TrEMBL record:
Residues 8-346 form the DUF6094 domain. Transmembrane segments: none annotated. GO terms for biological process: methylation. PROSITE patterns: N6_MTASE (PS00092). Gene3D superfamilies: Vaccinia Virus protein VP39 (3.40.50.150). Pfam families: DUF6094. This is DUF6094 domain-containing protein.
Length: 469
């Protein structure tokens, strides 16, 4: 097999598998040690034996959780056989009698499974890397219009009321526009990529440009939250890896009003325990639907729908939701979603604050174009349109300026109508000046030519032509 490329570190699934292999291997060894300690102290030091038993329980729980993580990561890498094995081991280990002496088969099964995980140079082949590279695709998966149509069927819009829709990663805006069109909605989107954001502005009412996480948006102002986040891992502030799917969900749900509808689209194997806990603690009437066969085969996408509620712990619901990720074939198809199952609250709401991370020149241009205030500012006032008389009589110089500019040319309609035309001509005149020395003796004469402007008004009256200068 070819060696593992150096860039493999960036693949979240392989990172999770590495962590799982380490935890499973250490857990298998630690369980043997703890069980031996129980046997050693059970007859003589019950307190130490009990401490060893509690440590054995904790180790078993950590190892079982690591098997669950490995199971989902293996589904992402399309290692279905290993994923099935992980599920069987997780179930068997969770129900294993810790006081049993048959630890050798458990140890061998766990370590044998850990060694098969595709995370080392000898076990990771180019096929696995190729699958992950195909799945990444820069994390951008536009939602298929056919599946949007099926989702729309399950949403009931209130009659006679305008609702607000939010997509925190709207791409070019096609999916959100399809949801909003014909349903009396205002569509708001945020997009990191400036080219896609510019395209989205041709389809949506408002578009914020830049990172959603640095945008400022009103809380509990939206009736529908449409969330199809990028499928990528990112570094959080502590330097650890985090999933975009989880961060977008956690940080966007506050913008959805209580009773509002969540549409959350992710690959089914990303319904991890932490995401399921967020969903169940904050939403009611949750349901999970796989996309139609063609889309599901390519991208493994599922739609989670629910109605927002006030936060309340629901660990049992999270455990039930988590199980759905392990049996994707058992998920109902989105075509089976009942019509009008999710009603939108009939609550009128105004979005007071909506600002993207970056200043949006295109949106400002559009708002100014549609602004009545701007139109009034640029329009001529009634005073500008009406004939006006000067407050004071014009001076000779002002009359000359007006006449020379041609502003009073033409017919003057008055008691004595006449036609007037003003023009300016150049006039030359010679001036002479006697020159004297400091002693008063006449030394000569200075002659100079002076050119000046002369204003002439030609006036045609019923009595004939006149020229005024």
């Amino acid at each position: 097999m070819p060696e593992l490329p150096e860039t493999t570190d960036r693949y979240y699934a392989l990172e999770r598998l590495r962590e799982a292999r380490l935890t499973i291997g250490k857990g298998a060894q630690a369980m043997l040690v703890s069980r031996a300690r129980i046997e050693k102290y059970r007859q003589t030091e019950l307190a130490r034996a009990q401490e060893a038993y509690l440590e054995l329980q904790r180790t078993r729980d950590r190892t079982a959780a690591a098997l669950g993580d490995a199971r989902l990561a293996l589904l992402e890498t399309e290692e279905y056989s290993l994923s099935k094995t992980a599920g069987k081991l997780q179930t068997g280990l969770s129900g294993f009698n810790l006081m049993s002496m048959a630890y050798k088969p458990i140890y061998e099964a766990l370590t044998g499974f850990a060694d098969k995980l595709p995370v080392g140079d000898q076990t990771t082949n180019a096929t696995v890397i190729g699958r992950l590279m195909n799945n990444v695709k820069l994390g951008y998966y536009p939602t298929d219009p056919e599946n949007i149509t099926h989702i729309l069927r399950g949403i009931r819009f209130p009659a006679g009321m305008t609702t607000n829709l939010l997509d925190p990663c709207c791409g070019c805006g096609k999916a959100l526009r399809q949801l909003a069109q014909g349903n009396n909605c205002y569509a708001f989107g945020v997009e990191l990529d400036e080219c896609r954001a510019e395209e989205a502005q041709t389809r949506l009412h408002r578009v914020g440009v830049g990172s959603f996480f640095y945008s400022r948006i009103s809380n509990e102002a939206f009736h529908v939250l449409f969330l199809n986040p990028p499928y990528l891992s990112v570094l959080n502030e502590s330097g650890n890896r985090a999933r975009h799917e989880k961060r977008f969900l956690a940080e966007s749900l506050s913008h959805l009003m209580i009773g509002g509808v969540l549409i959350y689209i992710v690959p089914y194997y990303r319904l991890t325990p932490d995401i399921c806990r967020i969903l169940c603690d904050n939403f009611t009437d949750l349901s999970v639907w796989r996309f139609t066969d063609g889309e599901f085969k390519k991208f493994k996408q599922a739609a989670v729908l629910g109605l927002r509620k006030r936060r309340a712990d629901d660990p049992d619901g999270a455990a039930s939701l988590e199980k759905l990720a392990y049996e994707p074939t058992a998920l109902p198809c989105i075509t089976e979603l009942q019509e009008g199952r999710y009603p939108i609250p009939a609550i009128s709401k105004t979005v007071e604050l909506f600002k993207g991370e970056k200043f949006n020149e295109k949106e400002l241009e559009q708002q100014l174009r549609n602004s009545d205030s701007f139109k009034r500012l640029m329009a001529h006032s009634e005073l500008d349109k009406a004939d006006k008389r000067p407050l004071l009589p014009l001076s000779i110089g002002q009359v000359g300026l007006i006449g020379g500019s041609g502003m009073i040319n033409g017919l003057i309609d008055c008691d004595t109508p006449h036609i007037i035309k003003g023009r300016i001509i150049k006039v030359k005149r010679v001036e002479s000046e006697d020159q004297y020395s400091s002693q008063g003796i006449h030394t000569g004469q200075e002659i100079k030519e002076v050119i000046s402007n002369k204003m002439i008004f030609n006036v045609l009256t019923p009595d004939g032509f006149k020229a005024l200068t």
